[in-house]
Amino acid sequence: MNFQQLEYLVALDTHRQFVGAAASCCVTQPALSMQLQKLEDELGVLLFDRKKKRLEPTAVGVKVVAHARQVLREVQLLREAVQVEKDELVGEVRLGIIPTLAPYLVPLFLVALAGRNPQLRVRVEELQSEELVRRLKAHQLDVGLLSTPLDDPQLREVPLLDEPFLGYVSESHPLYQRATLKPADISGEGLWLLQQGHCFRNQVLNICAPPPDNPSSYTYESGSIETLKELVRRNHGYTLVPELSVLNEIENNPMIKRFEGPEPVREVSLVVHHGFVRTQLLNQLRHLILEQVPARLHAGQAGQKINWK
Prior knowledge:
- It is a single chain.
- By secondary structure, the chain is α/β, with parallel strands linked by helices.
- Helix 1 packs across helix 2 and helix 1 crosses helix 3.
- The longest helix is centred in the N-terminal third of the chain and has 27 residues.
- Strands 3, 4, 5, 6, 7, 10, 11, 12 and 13 form a 9-stranded mixed beta sheet that branches.
- The protein has 3 domains: 79 residues, Orthogonal Bundle (Arc Repressor Mutant, subunit A), CATH 1.10.10; 113 residues, D-Maltodextrin-Binding Protein, domain 2 (3-Layer(aba) Sandwich), CATH 3.40.190.10; 104 residues, 3-Layer(aba) Sandwich (D-Maltodextrin-Binding Protein, domain 2).
């Protein structure tokens, strides 16, 4: 048994197919299959059921994979501890970010972080909150950027932003005449929402008054805040948006409406597992973002935090 075989085993569990697992490990499929077979022969057990349509670990395979992940994680922590002592940022960092933050935050840090640390490989993936949290706890991600609080004892949260929710209202809607909004104004009638699974959708519904008894004859649930904004710009209804999505238009667009104080806000945090040791990386990422975001959005500002669960 060797570390390479454990890496192949974990990759196969992650991708649940030989082609994807081999590609992620930069080896050929026959090479990966051969190493898995050697590992099964050595252990004397079948680790994956190859007869099913989708590759699945056997009962004993589930336990072996869990131990393999832990072994690989401990080795990675050892390497990271040495890097911390040497004041280096090298290797790979796997970062997950929710889709309602990605278009507005990733351009602020990705190129700069890679440029300042040429030996660091930064891999960013968009994931919905529940999957992102699962991967952080399984050590399949190093850092998460998402809405908090999570109140999970396995994870450490570093608050970054308190980002206000804003109304985005078409000229044809009655709310367009309001200077500011109240939560009671958000009744659901004419309101465009993100599709289920997005934490931002849950937060909007937590702000809303109870929905009307006479729903619209048509609905559209999007995976993109930008799509919802375009619907409103074409004179249909209204939606709620995070302030980062309208920074370039907030001063001169009358469709954008603030809420009366205390404004509803979403807390955005950097989240890591409690075993995470690369504090230098976390601090650098935090500073890269904060230096490019208006100070009014920095964590600790007045506002009413809206939970996403």
